[in-house]
Amino acid sequence: xxxxxxxxxSNDNSLFLHAFEKSPIGMALLSFDGxxxxxxxxxxxxxxxxxxxxxxLGVASSTYPEDLEADLELxxxxxxxxxxxxxxxxxxxHKSGTLMWGLLNVTSERNHxxxxxxxxxxxxxxxxxxxxxxxxxxxxxxxLHKLISDHSQDVILRLTPDGIISYVSPAARNQIGYxxxxxxxxxxxxxxxxxxxxxGWLRRGNSDNSDSRIFIYRLRHKSGHYIWQEAxxxxxxxxxxEIQHVISMGRDVxxxxxxxxxxxxxxKLSLIGELAAGIAHEIRNPLTSLRGFMQMYLKEDKDGxxxxxxxxxxxxIDRINEIVSELLVLAKPSNEVFESRDVxxxxxxxxxxxxxxxxxxNVQIKSEYDADLPFILCQSSINQVFINVLKNAxxxxxxxxxxxxxxxxxxxKAYIQIKDSxxxxxxxxxxxxxxxxxxxxETGTGLGLMVSVRIIQNHKGTMRIESEVGKGTxxxxxxxxxx
Length: 483
Fold this sequence. Notes:
There is one protein chain. The protein has about 475 residues and is an alpha+beta fold. About 40% of the residues lie in helices and about 25% in strands. It is built from 15 helices and 17 strands. The strands form three sheets. Strands 11, 12, 13, 14, 15, 16 and 17 form a seven-stranded mixed beta sheet that branches. The protein has a five-stranded antiparallel beta sheet with strand order 2-1-5-4-3, sandwiched between helices. It has a five-stranded antiparallel beta sheet with strand order 7-6-10-9-8. A hairpin with a 5-residue loop joins strand 8 and strand 9. Helix 9 (about 255-300) packs antiparallel against helix 10 (about 305-330) and helix 11 (about 345-355) crosses helix 13. The chain is rod-shaped, with a radius of gyration of 43 Å.
């Protein structure tokens, strides 16, 4: 078919030809057998050939080989009338040899006179090379973001402006025990400790309008306990200034927070130790004299009329002397040499010391020790720790109960747990245990556990307390083992 045959019937064809030549996108006319009949200037510029060269080369030569088969399959269906048009993204080979992307749209202009082979096919090609480059760059960025997100130890969150979780990185599994899909659609604040909310940065009406914040707060683990997390959060706004979403990166800082707390306690202990040293020595000397005179008065009381009063006074002086002794332990850590000792022997010795008191309180003491536990490197002061803990456990059960002492090995450490079934300690008071002069007992001073904490720290160990009101308390002491 000639050009005159294609465009000889009407003014409409002339208008089409004008539009064809002036079109800013590449256009071509093809015959039913795929021959290129005509190419417009835009297509010639796009591929770098003049029209004659393109017609001689044909469609197949300008198509990237790997994309040719898919294009030909669609072309076959179009020619056979199985579809009215088709669209495909494909690559073309420029005259210079470079590749370019085009969005190809092919439609058919059927011959209604029934003459076979007179159908015309119109191809329109839009250059989408730059778009494809941007898509490829965006894909690489997305892949990089996914790689970072999937392998980051920090939990990465994307939130709605109202704080609803829309994305969670896999690190959530290790940090708080949840699968990412379990958190999608939930409000982030549902997992915060209530005391750490402070109104909520994302809640409406909050006076803090800053776009970025660093938070340190407690986050509820799936198992129920809390970890400390430090999160860097930022509100992302669009061009109109509206918040599109919030990005947050949270890191587990539980160990850091506990270390800082230990440092603060150590500083307090050091300060109290200095104070205690001065006070203890000033008190102990007059106490010795007072007790001596009270014993003398007790002997001179022949008729016993003042015996009760004198005995009470001696008892109170002894109690003051006991407190002063504990202050002296705080004032100056023991210089005793560390020795390898059998932890089971230590615990057995302490248990025997309290057999009488346990019977008096109707308390049963049970022991569960791993076989062949290695020795621990310690001073004799370690006995005082277990004495203080076991004494508190027994006294927490005035109506009787059971104390279980367990000792087991995990890796290179000995884990000693002393559990009672006593009255328990409220959660808001557990964190105060070990602070100077804090106690839950009516006659206690709080110095016993404070001294114990000091001794454990001196042994490079840790002490942990869990308790529930009405159910009991568990004190865990972790100490390094000696192979």
